[in-house]
Amino acid sequence: MLIKISLTIIFLMVMIGVGLYSRKQASSVDGFVLGGRNVGGWLTAFAYGTSYFSAVVFVGYAGQFGWKYGMSASWIGVGNAVIGSLLAWLVLGKRTRQMTQQLQSRTMPDFFGSRYGDEGLRVTASIIAFVFLIPYTAGVYMGISKLFEMGFNIPYTYCAITMAILTAVYVILGGYKATAINDFIQGLIMLFGIVTVIAVVLNNQGGLYAAYEKMLAQVPNTDDLTQRGAELYKNFKAGDFASWFGPNPMSLLGVVILTSLGTWGLPQMVGKFYSITDESAIRRGTIISTVFALVVAGGCYFLGGFGRLFVPTAFNAETGKFAYDNIVPTMLETLPDILIALVVLLVLSASMSTLAGLVLTSSSTMTLDLIYRDKKANDKEVREGEIDDTVHGNIEKRKVIVMRVLIVFFIVISVMIAMNPPQFIAQLMGISWGALAGAFLAPFMLGLYWKGVTRQAVWACFIWGVGITVVNMMMGNSLMNPIDCGAVAMLGGFPVVWIVSLLTPTRQ
């Protein structure tokens, strides 16, 4: 316990120290939100990767999808690397940087408002981002708290509150630059940690081949399941969980789409391209980000795929629910203390970096796109001499103060949801990613390359993405499970934008 506590305290002190170091660069809006648009390829790549993968992946997704699909869950990690990282950087990186600088936009809602000449789009996008980033953040708190509960025997509630306070401190102090530097440090811990943990966990099963042989024999034991549980597994057979594409390939494909393509429409992910320095940094970042995703995401899902060897059943007959979020913590309980400390740091690193990106995105969006929507007017007044630099500087300081206050507000709401979550971690993520990427992905991506996208098409996609997610949620996910609904919302946005754009006039 002394080892675990000591390493954790050192880690947290370093994070706060970076926040203090970066404080001077966070005095202006551009410095606080974008790091002055001067962040290199290595920092941006690690910021992208660590914002992508958090306790949600390591605990929630790896546990649930590893249980459902067995070893084939590793394809989710491959999809995250190829589609969510490599293609995202190739398709969006350079173009996003160029257009956001031309439009002088600092956030995704700002892009919509400037690109399509509609303040209503800016305001609506900021509200969508703020509302649907909350369940994402709550899912991260749930994941990290469960690992802390396992590693330190500290109650879940205390863990969530402590992590919220510590994340708020270094983001409020240093803004995006502190987040990027900490992401780099945290990313190195994640790379080392996931490789080490996989090696030790599989060694406890007699090695990779022995673990694979045990997975070949895995088939659900329906004797101790309720009728509902038995119905879910009636078509499975021995060997399904060790096959290339698992027991349900189409469902697996939906998860790959949601977790890979979804990043293209998430404000906190796309925002990383706003701040990168130049095209050479983008090329470096593309390679680094892809390798990082392959190791971290691939490793998490590969590890989760062996969950059935450690947990007799994930179905609780008393509650009628699957305890997916407890699978990975159970896998790790038998590790030596030093490795449990490493796991805690791994998940802490992944989660704090994601939380930092989420709260910074949410607060900056609400401040710049809802509360202070007069950015262009202020810039014009400065150029024409109607207000001097001192007055303009005071306006910038007020905006930064408001963002810092909203960071606290956003964290408090997220922690309150995490205290009494309505869904499993993966379902919370499905709701968040489905609504955000369903609303934003198609109009943002097509808007970068096609002049024919109309503001009416953007409105239609906002209604489509949020509408299908909310309706499905209000119907108790009776139409589709949240994961599949998110995938449908994302892919369906493209024909919505295309058809409506062809039927409505373009902006003159």
Which helices and strands occur, and which strands form pairs?
Blueprint: H1 2-21, H2 29-34, H3 41-52, H4 55-69, H5 74-103, H6 108-115, H7 119-152, H8 156-203, H9 208-216, H10 227-233, H11 249-261, H12 267-270, H13 279-304, E1 315-316, E2 321-322, H14 327-332, H15 337-371, H16 375-383, H17 389-419, H18 425-449, H19 455-474, H20 482-503
Antiparallel strand pairs: 1-2
Helix pairs in contact: 1-8, 1-15, 3-8, 3-13, 3-15, 4-7, 4-13, 5-11, 5-13, 6-7, 7-8, 7-15, 7-17, 7-18, 8-13, 8-15, 8-17, 11-20, 15-17, 18-19, 18-20, 19-20
Short description:
By secondary structure, the protein is an all-alpha fold. Helices cover 75% and strands 1% of the residues.
Descriptive report:
The protein has 508 residues and is an all-alpha fold. It has one domain (2-425): Sodium/glucose cotransporter (Up-down Bundle). 75% of the residues lie in helices and 1% in strands. The chain has helices spanning 2-21, 29-34, 41-52, 55-69, 74-103, 108-115, 119-152, 156-203, 208-216, 227-233, 249-261, 267-270, 279-304, 327-332, 337-371, 375-383, 389-419, 425-449, 455-474, 482-503; strands spanning 315-316, 321-322. Strands 1-2 form a two-stranded antiparallel sheet. A hairpin with a 4-residue loop joins strand 1 and strand 2 (321-322). The longest helix has 48 residues, at 156-203.
